[in-house]
Amino acid sequence: MTPVYHKILVPLENSDYDEAIVDHVARLATLCRASLLLVHVADGWVARNFHQLSLRESEEMARDRGYLEGVAARMAAQGLSVESILAGGDPSREIVELAEREGCDLIAMSTHGHRFLSDLLYGSVANSVRHRSTVPVLLVRGTPRDRRERPRA
CA 145, 14, 123 angle in degrees (round to 5)? Predict the structure, then answer.
C-alpha cells in the first residue's frame, strides 16, 4: 500500500543539493496530491535575532527568500500546491517544530552523504531532524553540480 501524504515539508538550503529533493518530492506530491511547504532556515546572526531585536532582513536573508520563492513558483507552475516560509534559528529545531506546527505528515530533505568524520566535525541537520522528529523523514542523497554525470560527447 502506498503511503498517503497530505502536506509535505521540504527544507531547502539554497545549494546544488536541493535539486535532488525538489525533483523527487514533485513526483511524490503529484502521486499523493499533497501540498508542499518549502522552508529555508537562515541561521546567521541577523536571522537568529530577527524577531527579538526587530532587525531588518539581511542581504543573505533576502537572497534566500528570493531563492525559496523562485523554487515555489517553479513547482506551482507544474500544478503543485506550494507555500514557502523563510525561518530563522537552529535549522534542525526549526524544521521539526515547523512540521509539527503546520500539521505536516512527512519531512522530505536532501542529504550531503557525509561520512563519519565530516558528520562529527560539521554535524548533520538531516541526522538531527531524523532523531528529533515524530513526523516521518524521507532522505534523498543529493549530488553537487560538479559531481553530476556530464553528458558524453
Answer: 90
